[in-house]
Design goal:
There is one protein chain. By secondary structure, this protein is an alpha/beta fold. It has 2 domains: about 15-45 and about 295-395, Aspartate Aminotransferase, domain 1; about 50-290, 3-Layer(aba) Sandwich (Aspartate Aminotransferase, domain 2), CATH 3.40.640.10. It is about 45% helix and about 10% strand. The chain is built from 16 helices and 12 strands. The strands form 3 sheets. A 7-stranded mixed β-sheet has the order 2-8-7-6-5-3-4, sandwiched between helices. Strands 9-12-11 form a 3-stranded antiparallel β-sheet. A two-stranded parallel ribbon has the order 1-10. Strand 6 (about 205-210), helix 10 and strand 7 (about 235-240) form a beta-alpha-beta unit. Helix 6 (about 105-120) crosses helix 11 and helix 8 packs parallel to helix 9 (about 190-205). The longest helix has 24 residues, at about 295-315. It is globular, with a radius of gyration of 22 Å. Residues about 400-415 have low confidence and may be disordered. Bound molecules: pyridoxal-5'-phosphate. Pyridoxal-5'-phosphate binds near residues 44, 107, 178, 244 and 255.
Length: about 425
């Protein structure tokens, strides 16, 4: 043990909200150490591999000695051009690769640093609640404030945003959006919603960041609109996309921001100081992914759709009321009153982990409006998902403990979200 007599962390760290996954992660760790085979549906960490073509390209590029130096912090030109081609192909949006596209070490890193580039003490961002935690922490880490409004995808939600912007002084500077949404899987029907957002942003002079992490994880015929398809979107905002979810490259750490040139430039400036870019073979393999592996993207979305059916059907069979999402890799489900009681979803999730040996994310960890719900990540195969529902049923409905601990053949540690 050391004596921490002169350690004084920054205000930046101290003003972070409490970390609500703490107890759940501690319990999970303890159980795993005891050899319990936890079915982990807690985090949106893809469990499938990228297609062989992508992995082969990574290996080939890694064998080239020229690819091991520092790379370009904003991403190599061919990669940024591939993103602009993808946007043209998928959404009909034109982007200038060097001015309007930047690569980042996953969209989470890019988002956080974009907050740092745009926000500071005295500034405010508007974020819907429930929210993906980094949408709040990224703003807090930049020293700025967050004002939450209950999340929605309609006129009423836009009305709440307009009200806040009109009545708060100083006016909020930034609006953070995310459709398809994590954790609720909420979607918007068409680009009209974003056109209204652009109109509001121009009227009130705020910037917009749209996190489009699940833009390619859609099913049942649903196609998620890109924010950048809205007329004038590039005047007010940017959109983040990721290789993590559509291409199963979460651990590779690569994503992009696209849109407003000034915002992209500000992120490039911050990144220029902080990092030397993504490992070049990863950038090369990502070009191949975007150019040739679209079939893998739709197959992965179909896999999530089948898993969604397993979970939604299973939960309905045990008496939960749950709506099937049409996008994302999550099922957002209201916990039955009789199971939740007065304890709230954080103790509920801990109890489920203890008694059912299934990890899910408590809705409260995503904001006050998430209380009463849980988020189930579709990151195990269908058989394991069926098993998870059986174990939840036994633990909740029959008061029977989950099956006795089975030894883990291979310990898999998942980092915190
Ligand atoms: C909404 C949302 N944004 C961003 C991320 C992070 O993605 P990346 O791996 O690109 O950092 C996630 C990951 O779960 C997410 O759900």
């Amino acid at each position: 043990m050391t004596d921490n007599w002169n350690i004084d962390v920054s205000q930046r760290i101290r003003r972070l909200p409490p970390y609500l996954f703490g107890e759940l992660n501690r319990l999970k760790y303890q159980k795993r150490r005891a050899g319990v085979d936890i079915i982990d549906l807690g985090m949106g960490n893809p469990s499938d591999a990228p297609t062989t073509e992508i992995i082969d390209k990574l290996c080939e590029a890694a064998h080239d000695p020229r690819n091991h130096g520092y790379s370009a912090s904003a991403g190599v030109f061919n990669l940024r051009r591939e993103v602009s081609r993808l946007y043209k192909r998928l959404y009909g949006v034109s982007l200038a690769p060097e001015e309007e596209v930047i690569a980042c070490l996953g969209s989470k890193e890019g988002f956080s640093h974009m907050c740092l580039a745009l926000m500071g003490p005295g500034d405010t961002a508007v974020v819907g609640d429930p929210y993906f935690p980094i949408h709040v922490y990224g703003v807090a880490l930049a020293g700025a404030n967050v004002i939450n409004v209950p999340l929605g995808n309609d006129e009423a939600f836009l009305g709440r945003i307009a009200y806040v912007v009109e009545h708060l002084f100083p006016k909020p500077k930034l609006l953070i959006l995310n459709y398809p949404h994590n954790p609720t899987a909420m979607t918007v029907d068409g680009v009209g919603f974003f056109e209204e957002v652009v109109r509001l942003a121009k009227k009130h002079g705020f910037m917009v960041i749209h996190d489009f992490a699940y833009g390619r994880t859609c099913f049942d015929g649903y196609e998620a609109p890109s924010f950048l398809q809205a007329e004038g979107a590039k005047d007010v905002g940017v959109e983040f996309v990721t290789m993590s979810k559509p291409y199963n490259m979460a651990g590779w750490r690569i994503g992009f921001a696209a849109g407003n040139a000034e915002m992209i430039r500000s992120l490039a400036t911050i990144k220029g100081y902080y990092d030397y870019g993504i490992f070049t073979p990863i950038q090369i393999a990502s070009i191949i992914a975007m150019r040739h592996c679209e079939k893998g993207v739709s197959e992965q979305a179909q896999a999530y759709r089948s898993r969604r059916d397993v979970v939604v059907d299973g939960l309905r069979r045990i008496g939960w009321e749950v709506e099937p999402p049409r996008a994302s890799m999550f099922v957002w489900a209201r916990v039955r009153e009789e199971h939740l009681g007065s304890e709230g979803t954080i103790p509920f999730a801990n109890r489920l982990l203890d008694e059912a040996e299934v990890a899910i994310a408590p809705g409260r960890a995503f904001g006050e409006q998430g209380e009463g719900y849980v988020r189930i990540a579709l990151v195990e195969n269908e058989q394991r998902l069926r098993q998870a529902i059986r174990q939840i049923d036994r633990a909740l409905n029959k008061g029977i403990k989950a099956p006795s601990a089975t030894k883990l053949k291979r310990k898999r540690q998942r980092p915190a979200e």
